[in-house]
Specification:
Elements (H helix, E strand, L loop, with lengths): L5 E6 L5 H14 L4 E5 L2 H11 L3 E3 H4 L21 E4 L7 H10 L5 E6 L12 H8 L4 E4 L4 H4 L2 H10 L15 E5 L3 H20 L7 E5 L8 H12 L7 E3 L2 E3 L4 E4 L13 E8 L4 E6 L2 E6 L6 E3 L2 E3 L8 E8 L9 H8 L2 E9 L1 H8 L11 H7 L2
Parallel strand pairs: 1-5, 1-6, 2-3, 2-4, 4-5, 7-18, 8-16, 8-17, 17-18
Antiparallel strand pairs: 9-10, 11-12, 11-15, 12-13, 13-14
Length: about 375
Amino acid sequence: MLSSKLAVITGGPGVGKTSTLDSILRILVAKRVRVALAAPTGRAAKRITEQSGIEAKTIHRLLEVSPKHGGFTRNEENPLECDLLVIDETSMVDVPLMNALLKAVPSHAALLLVGDVDQLPSVGPGQVLADIINSGRVPVARLTEVFRQAAESRIVVNAHRINSGYLPEGARGGENSDFYIVDIAEPEEGVTKLIEIVSQRIPRRFGLDPLRDVQVLCPMNRGVLGARNLNHELQRVLNPSPTATVERFGWRFSPGDRVMETQNDYDRDVFNGDLGTVARIDDDEGTLVVNFEGREVVYPFGELDTLIPAFATTIHKSQGSEYPAVVIPVTTQHYAMLARNLLYTGVTRGKRLVVLVAQKRAIAIAVRGGQMKRRWTKLREWLLAAK
């Protein structure tokens, strides 16, 4: 990597991507190399900052979004000031964003792309990381060995099992584990069990706060075990008698609610997928105040259409984030979305605990590959044809 202008580090959980990157950064910083770090989401940027001790930004902030004119301030005419640019969670980066990013890399600088190519591809068009790797034109370090400490985690072991096409293994009766499979026969039964697990069992057994530490991740929005219905159900149980309430666009918002921004809002400096907590409601001003990672953002009541409750969210929306505990419903009702990379991405979001509330048949459909849809892209061909 140190001798390449462009390189890729990829691999699943527990294989040492972070440790390897940390070593590279230590060497280069000691050599006075100017390093810039970025990731697609605020949470991923925060994580890389904590791990490396170097400030990381979201790609949008790094490129200096211009709310007034649209687009980015950093480009060919005004490139970034760095000798090495490192992008983490690159699997999430789509074609338009990568295009803007590459234009802003100074001609003398190197680019290191880090990410897990087996996760879901970007929400936007393309599969940039996969195409770069599959072209064979760029040096790629694919880390595969799960280190001993990580191998003690059932989350890590089961993530690699799923990725290799094997069924995950739940905890055996009575044993302590960080990975559980709760068997259900029907989706309706799953709703009751899931709410009990989130609101009672996990807090009692693991001491985790259901509002702050537990995230429900769904394959899709629709259905009784979809994100939309579970948000209503979980809100009723986890924030039952709030001090104030405002209802807009089919949702109730109250202080204490976990919420998510669903669009890039350059004026407010919040982006699609950012998680926050409703801090207070000001009826006199007609505004709702949301705390995003310690920063308060004001939304007039009429502009709450891009905000949604996030007690439950889709696996797609959770990319680039990690949570202390995740609970994932998996049923044949989700058939249209069941795919190996979807389940794998969901499971790898959990740091300390993963619980699948699932029909065994649905897990098997996902692990076998399910509805993995091919993406039609041109980047790999162009890279292969490049002289």
